[in-house]
TrEMBL record:
Lineage, broadest ranks: Bacteria, Bacillati, Bacillota, Clostridia, Neomoorellales
SUPFAM superfamilies linked to this entry: Flavoproteins (SSF52218)
InterPro entries according to UniProt: Flavoprotein-like_sf (IPR029039), FMN_Rdtase-like_dom (IPR005025), ISF_SsuE-like (IPR051796)
Residue ranges annotated for the NADPH-dependent FMN reductase-like domain, each copy included: 3-156
Keywords tagged on the record: Flavoprotein, FMN
Gene Ontology terms for molecular function: oxidoreductase activity
Designated name of the protein: Multimeric flavodoxin WrbA
Keyword Flavoprotein listed: yes
Superkingdom to which the source organism belongs: Bacteria
A Pfam family of this chain: FMN_red
Length: 196
C-alpha cells in the first residue's frame, strides 16, 4: 500500500490549511493508499542552526524538538502534500524550519526523498499565494520530488478576519481534487514501473 503524508504548517486550531490538507488526503482511495496527517500545531520544530552537524552525524544534531519524528514519516512516505497558510507572501516559519532541516539532512545523508511524488497547497485571504507556492515548489524540486500538475495552482482563498471557511472555495477544492487524481496516477505508475 502506498503511503501519503500530509503536513499542515498552520499553528491554528481547525485551520483552513489543515482542512485543505485533510481534504486532499481524503481523496486518495483507501484500498490503495494509506494516508496520515501531521499538524505542526501540536509540535515544536526549531529552525536550522546552520551548524553542519548533519554532515558528520548523518542526521540532524538538534535533539530537543519534534523534527526527527516528522522527518522519519517524510522519509517513509511515498507521497508528500505540504500545506501552508500565507500571511505575508511566504511559507509559515515553523514549516520552513522543518523543510530547511529536512533538506539539509537529505543533502548530507542520501536520497530519502528522491522519486517521491508530492506538491504544495497554499491558503490566504487575498494575495501572496504564488510566492509561498513557489517556495514550496523550489523545495520539492531540489529534493528530487516529482510534482504532478493540476488545472491551476493548488491554492485556496479563505480566512477573512480569521474565518475558517476554506470549504467555500469550490474552485480551490476542484484544483486540489485534480492534483490528487494526478498524484495518485503518478504514484501508481511508479509502483508498477519504478525505473520510469
Amino acid at each position: 500500500m502506498l503511503k501519503v503524508l500530509g503536513i499542515s504548517g498552520s499553528l491554528r486550531e481547525n485551520s483552513n490549511t489543515e482542512y485543505l490538507v485533510r481534504y486532499a488526503l481524503s481523496l486518495f482511495p483507501d484500498t490503495e493508499f494509506k494516508t496520515e496527517l501531521v499538524s505542526l500545531k501540536e509540535l515544536v520544530i526549531k529552525p536550522c542552526q546552520g551548524c553542519y552537524g548533519c554532515l558528520t552525524a548523518r542526521k540532524c544534531v538538534q535533539e530537543d524538538d519534534d523534527f526527527e519524528f516528522v522527518y522519519q514519516k517524510m522519509a517513509e512516505a511515498d507521497g508528500l502534500i505540504i500545506g501552508t497558510p500565507v500571511y505575508f507572501s511566504s511559507v509559515h516559519p515553523q514549516l520552513m524550519a522543518l523543510l530547511d532541516r529536512a533538506g539539509f539532512v537529505r543533502l548530507w545523508t542520501g536520497e530519502q526523498f528522491s522519486g517521491k511524488v508530492g506538491g504544495p497547497i497554499t491558503v490566504a485571504r487575498r494575495a501572496g499565494h504564488n510566492t509561498a507556492f513557489a517556495q514550496l515548489l523550489l523545495w520539492f524540486f531540489i529534493n528530487d520530488i516529482i510534482v504532478p500538475g493540476s488545472s491551476y495552482w493548488t491554492m485556496a482563498v479563505a480566512g477573512s478576519r480569521g474565518a475558517r471557511d476554506a470549504a467555500k472555495d469550490e474552485e480551490g477544492l476542484r484544483h486540489i481534487t485534480k492534483f490528487v487524481k494526478n498524484m495518485s496516477r503518478v504514484m501508481k505508475a511508479l509502483q508498477v514501473a519504478p525505473d520510469l
